[in-house]
């Protein structure tokens, strides 16, 4: 699921829907959250 979410975010960054730096930040936050669950 995380991988799918990251792929969607990457496509959004490529299409300039979100700024690439914002996407990178969200991806990091998601990864940290997922790692804290396991």
SSE order and pairing:
Layout: H1 2-14, H2 20-37
Helix pairs in contact: 1-2
Could you characterize what this model shows?
With 38 residues, this protein is mainly α. The protein contains two helices and no strands. The protein has one domain (2-37). The protein is elongated and about 30 Å long.
Tags for this entry?
38 residues; mainly alpha
* H and E order: HH
What's the structural domain tally? 1
Shape: elongated
Largest sheet: none
Secondary structure class reads mainly alpha
First-to-last CA distance: 14 Å
* Contiguous runs where pLDDT drops below 50 for at least 5 residues: none
Radius of gyration, CA atoms, in whole angstroms: 10 Å
Summarize the entry for a quick read:
With 38 residues, the chain is mostly helical. Helix content is 82%, strand content 0%. The radius of gyration is 10 Å and the shape is elongated.
